[in-house]
Design a protein that fits this description.
Elements (H helix, E strand, L loop, with lengths): L9 E2 L21 E2 L2 H4 L3 E2 L13 E3 L5 H4 L5 E4 L6 E4 L24 H5 L2 E4 L6 E6 L6 E2 L4 E2 L1 E2 L2 E2 L1 H29 L3 E9 L5 E10 L1 H5 L3 H9 L3 H9 L4 H12 L1
């Protein structure tokens, strides 16, 4: 990918093409602006700033390639709406992320979703355009002119920024393939709306709603030709991971109980 991609719109690669735009992602971005050397040449990204920006996100989106890794640590549900997307459940209460410590560190030994690794970068697609622009959250705590990885070397993207560009491009392409899979699951009637009420030992409770879950019985009843088609599209590994993630609810509950204690 050439250095010029940050100064001019990015042509969407064929592998990134999608039938619909990727749905809105969790509200971690207060505002976004296109990344430009004229405006952002002095900026650096300091990863030591931590993940405090995600401390109030009780769910984040997952791409299909992440599902087997995330299923070991988080329950996986689907956002309700016409275009569902799989989400890692990170907390039972609104504004609660049980995996971010008070110092902004991520819980040791647990998977860090790619959406959080990509922050504060995100691709922008102007309405009515097939072009993509790499954008940033200019108010992100990790962005400043002090310590950290330089974004530009003169007017050219730094090696670090080129790597982030590749990472964000791959992540977006994977999200769009995930969207195709989720639309197929919904179209096959496999997603059902759910509401969960959690009772804590302390006597308090929490309610989760506005999500859907994959119904394993309906999945098992699918015609063989559907399973073969989804295997050809390399979706089955992700689907099985989503089903296995149901065993992760208890782990998140334990974290919630420990925090309450």
């Amino acid at each position: 990918m050439s250095d010029a991609v940050l100064a001019t719109p990015l042509a969407t690669p064929p592998a990134v093409a999608a039938p619909q735009p990727v749905p809105a992602l969790p509200p971690l971005f207060g505002r976004v602006e296109p990344l430009e050397p004229a405006r952002h040449a002095a900026l650096r990204l300091d990863r030591s700033a931590g993940l405090g920006f995600a401390a109030r996100a009780n769910a984040v989106p997952l791409s299909i390639v992440e599902l087997p890794f995330a299923a070991r640590h988080f329950p996986i549900v689907f956002a309700s709406g016409p275009v569902p997307m799989p989400l890692a459940v990170l907390g039972y209460r609104a504004g609660e992320n049980l995996f971010v410590g008070a110092d902004g560190s991520w819980r040791a030994g647990t998977y860090l979703p790619a959406y959080l690794r990509a922050y504060p970068f995100i691709f922008l697609q102007p309405e009515g355009s097939e072009k993509l622009l790499l954008g940033i959250e200019p108010d992100a705590p990790a962005l400043h002119t002090g310590a950290g990885e330089a974004l530009f070397e003169g007017e050219q993207p730094s090696a670090f920024l080129k790597e982030m560009l590749r990472f964000c491009s791959d992540f977006r392409a994977s999200l769009e393939e995930t969207q195709r899979m989720a639309i197929a699951l919904k179209g096959a009637g496999l997603l059902e709306e759910r509401e969960a009420r959690v009772e804590f030992r302390s006597g308090s409770s929490a309610r989760l709603n506005g999500f859907a879950m994959l119904n394993p019985e309906r999945f098992d009843a699918l015609p063989d030709e559907t399973i073969l088609e989804w295997r050809r599209r390399h979706w089955l590994g992700g689907i099985y991971a989503i089903l296995q993630a149901s065993g992760s609810w208890s782990g998140v509950l334990d974290l919630a109980e420990a925090k309450a204690a």
